[in-house]
Amino acid sequence: MKWFKRKNSQLPRFDPPGPSPWYLHGRKIETKMGPLTWSEYGNHRVLAGVSRLQTPEAKDIMLLDFGCYARPLGDDRLLLWYEDARKGDSPFANPIIHFDIIDLCALTPITDPETEAERMRKEKEHRFFLPVPHPEFTCFSTLAPGRHGLADIPPAFAQIEEALVLADYCPEGKASNNFDQMCRAIFAFDFGSAQVDVIPQDWFNNGNYDFGYQWITRVARDRKTGRIFGEGIRLGFFRLDETGRTVEQWLVKDPFYGPRG
Fold first, then answer.
1. Which of 42, 62, 199, 246 shows its CA 20 to 30 Å from the CA of 35?
2. Which helix (H) or strand (E) holds 119?
3. Per residue in 94-147, pLDDT tens?
4. Contacts of 39 (CB under 8 A, 6+ apart)
5. Could you say which DSSP state residue 172 is in?
6. Where are the beta strands (DSSP E) in 41-142?
7. 201 near 184, Cβ under 8 Å?
8. Whole-Å CA distances, 188 to 51, 60, 89, 131, 136
9. Using an 8 Å Cβ cutoff, are 185 and 203 in contact?
10. Region 183-192 average pLDDT
11. Domain locations along the chain
């Protein structure tokens, strides 16, 4: 994790992955085949919000819809994850967190990216790239707070550093509804130890926030202290306490929105 100083401030600034498309546009990934760049479809009537990973020749090799997180691994590979929320009341449609480890240099240009992007959105897929064998891992997010063991992790994940994932943990089968209920948690994946810690964000879930307009976007752990820092849309920049469930200090508060009331 890279930590930086904010301009004109002694506060730490972090740069973990954030959800597409907001945290991807214009970013580059250096690879042996040249820099790959994240682009968008702009104000396209149908495809606004679809992120496109492009080669130096401006050929699309990957498409992402809203809410995907991409972390370059520094060896021409990409760790990609997304949350697939509960669909209706079916017990066979439990929400999941899905991970991919993708060799970027193995990807080939998509022949008709606009058509594929339209199909991806219509079929509610999260990402598209031409088929290439790659390690995948899926974890149900209907987990109680606390530590859980993980099974059937592909060997390629063993060397991946901790991944902090924001997702619903669906207590009592309930999921966030973007209006009056939030069930967000940090899932701290330690693939090397085959464990995940589920850390509900009580301060937010039980807070008087406007959930349709305020949300946590990304989090990262300070290796020196072990504390988790985070930021959110219309929230600001914060540090969690030792439990990871309560804000210990607001380092920057967004002046546009505070808690309602």
1. 42
2. helix 113-122
3. 889 999 999 999 999 999 999 999 999 999 999 999 999 999 999 999 999 999
4. 25, 26, 51, 52, 53, 54
5. G
6. 51-54, 60-64, 68-72, 77-84, 96-103, 127-128, 136-140
7. yes
8. 26, 32, 27, 29, 17
9. no
10. 97
11. 3-253
